[in-house]
From TrEMBL:
The lineage of its organism: Eukaryota, Metazoa, Ecdysozoa, Arthropoda, Chelicerata. This is F-box only protein 9. It comes from Amblyomma maculatum. One of its GO terms (biological process) is SCF-dependent proteasomal ubiquitin-dependent protein catabolic process. Its main location: cytoplasm. GO terms for cellular component: cytoplasm; SCF ubiquitin ligase complex.
Length: 433
């Protein structure tokens, strides 16, 4: 070729033949005939080629080791980068910035698709300063950690929750969030939630909102005040109970967010002297008896044939406006409830009319006082849901005279009273706990 002729003219025959052999597939015999140098250098070339093969093998092995170490270092750097981004997402989610958390999670998954499983199956979480600090402190103090199943739930949540705020913001908003309130102010709000009527069910509903609300709703001082409101001086100390909340739940007490109701039926015979088209030999009489208790010791009783939808409104206030409602006081002795009730005073005006020259006088009514004694029972898994009659007497007082009428407490005439919750009784709080 043209390149071949140019190289021959420039460098000579022997040298050109030695150089062109690897690239131009020229015959070795042809080169040896035309080049006297090949006879002297052929052994040297073979020795060099064999030595070069050994060096190439060692170099390839070293290059493979360098490439593998470089790839492993690169993979570790990617995992570390993805881990840091993922932990930023965790921190953003804890603080309530969900959009930032999703962005960090997405970036971490793009770098290492299984970063979440790598973190879950390894000890990489220990690099988080908060978690590592809490774990170290927990181990150094010898106290049980938050993963100890033997601890109560509120204590585990209290250990796990290290933030000073009661809760965190779920999304950005312009108005002031409830998490900005101091804990003391929020506890005062919970006292209004419970109120002086001891609406504990509303407090339990508040505790279901978040972990911070749960901890505040389990505050011992709050439950101590509820126990003192329920039993007064007989509250005592925590002897057989682990907490004030346990005392309030397990100890016999009256339910205040509703009424105790029973329904009584009996058969009355008809009047035989009036046998007309409306005559019936017997009538089935039905009436209801309601008892409502207030935490301050006030009790109301109403006996009426009206159904509960028409009667419960008469028991809404402590000072009833209806003469059919009896009011009084009660006290609790163990499982026994004792109450004393009276009819409200009726305003009577003296008549000024005359009948046949004589003054018409109204016969005075005796003052009646009702004495009740009932027993608290827990039936069908419902605590303190039933009141059973133990004694019932009516004391009538005239000037200088007193009479007592007692009743035979049969199961048909005086059936047990069952508790029924009335939501309208706890819609408004009049005063805090």
């Amino acid at each position: 070729t043209k390149a071949w002729r140019l190289l021959r003219k420039k460098h000579g025959t022997g040298v050109v033949c030695f150089v062109i052999i690897p690239t131009e597939s020229v015959s070795l015999d042809h080169c040896s005939r035309n080049s006297p140098i090949m006879d002297n250098q052929q052994p040297t070339v073979q020795t060099s080629s064999s030595q070069t093969g050994v060096d190439d093998a060692d170099g390839a092995a070293e290059e493979d080791d360098e490439e593998s170490s470089h790839s492993s270092d690169k993979e570790l750097r990617l995992i570390e980068k993805a881990k840091q981004i993922y932990l930023k997402g965790v921190s953003a989610e804890r603080s309530g910035r969900m959009q930032d958390a999703i962005m960090h999670y997405r970036r971490a998954l793009q770098i290492v698709p299984d970063i979440e499983f790598r973190l879950a199956n390894s000890s990489m979480w220990s690099v988080d300063e908060e978690s590592s600090g809490s774990e170290t402190e927990c181990e150094d103090n010898g106290s049980p950690c938050d993963n100890d199943d033997t601890m109560p739930l509120h204590q585990r949540i209290k250990i796990k929750t290290s933030s000073a705020n009661i809760c965190s913001v779920a999304w950005e908003q312009k108005a002031t969030h409830i998490s900005d309130l101091p804990r003391e102010v929020f506890m005062f709000i919970l006292r209004w939630v419970v109120s002086s009527d001891l609406d504990i069910l509303s407090l339990e509903s508040v505790s279901k909102v978040c972990r911070g609300f749960y901890l505040c709703a389990r505050d011992p001082e709050l439950w101590h005040m509820a126990c003192a409101r329920t039993w007064g001086e007989d509250c005592g100390q925590l002897n057989q109970y682990d907490s004030w909340r346990e005392m309030y739940i397990c100890r016999p007490r009256i339910c205040y967010n509703g009424v105790y109701i029973n329904r009584t039926t009996y058969v009355r015979h008809g009047e035989s002297s009036f046998q007309d088209s409306t005559y019936r030999p017997c009538f089935l009489v039905e009436y209801f008896r309601y008892l409502r208790f207030f935490p301050d010791g006030v009790v109301l009783m109403l006996t009426t044939p009206d159904n509960p939808y028409l009667s419960l409104g008469k028991l809404r206030s402590r000072r009833p406006a209806y003469t059919s409602v009896l009011s009084g006081s009660f006290w609790l002795e163990g499982t026994r409830v004792k109450a004393v009730l009276k009819k409200p005073a009726m305003k009577t005006s003296r008549s000024t009319g005359y009948r046949r020259g004589g003054r018409h006088n109204v016969e005075p009514q005796p003052e009646q006082v009702f004495h009740l004694e009932l027993e608290l029972r827990s039936v069908r898994g419902r605590a303190n849901a039933q009141l059973v009659w133990k004694s019932y007497a009516i004391h009538s007082y005239w000037p200088g005279q007193e009479s007592v009428a007692t009743f035979d407490l049969t199961s048909t005439a005086f059936p047990p009273l069952w508790f029924s919750r009335v939501k309208s009784f706890t819609l408004v709080s009049e005063s805090p706990l």
